[in-house]
Amino acid sequence: xxxxxxxxxxxxxxxxxxxxxxxxxxxxxxxxxxxxxxxxxxxxxxxxxxxxxxxxxxxxxxxxxxxxxxxxxxxxxxxxxxxxxxxxxxxxxxxxxxxxxxxxxxxxxxxxxxxxxxxxxxxxxxxxxxxxxxxxxxxxxxxxxxxxxxxxxxxxxxxxxxxxxxxxxxx
Length: 171
Known about the structure:
Layout lengths: L6 E4 L6 H5 L8 E15 L10 E20 L4 H10 L3 E5 L5 E3 L5 E2 L2 E6 L9 E2 L1 H12 L3 H9 L1 E4 L4 E3 L4
Parallel strand pairs: 1-7, 2-9, 3-8
Antiparallel strand pairs: 1-3, 2-3, 2-5, 4-7, 5-6, 9-10
């Protein structure tokens, strides 16, 4: 893959501007997008964040033709950033998204040449709840952008509960 012509989709803790900056990514390097055909859910066993409780899940996406989620697109990711992000996303596999699945908020046009990280097979667990600190970081990241983005984050992010899955809330 020629990384300079690809765009990375981020949907979890990298929604937070502080997290983006820690990887040398400024807000002028990103666009806000919607990704069709996938559901965002707190069901991933962590690879880096440690917790010995039921509250240990980090975000993942799952294929679901009837769903979508909002995200940030990092434009024309550099080779150095790609290597650093590969290390960060150790519990995930890189997935090239089919063109037509990613749409910009600003004008509804379609983004091309996008990839996203999806949880490695076998690391999903339907009996765990979100890691509290990670949950807050993601929520505050979504909230730090514009109102519609935050509302969409709340309405497209799921977590496990004893009966199945439910939408998250900010309470």
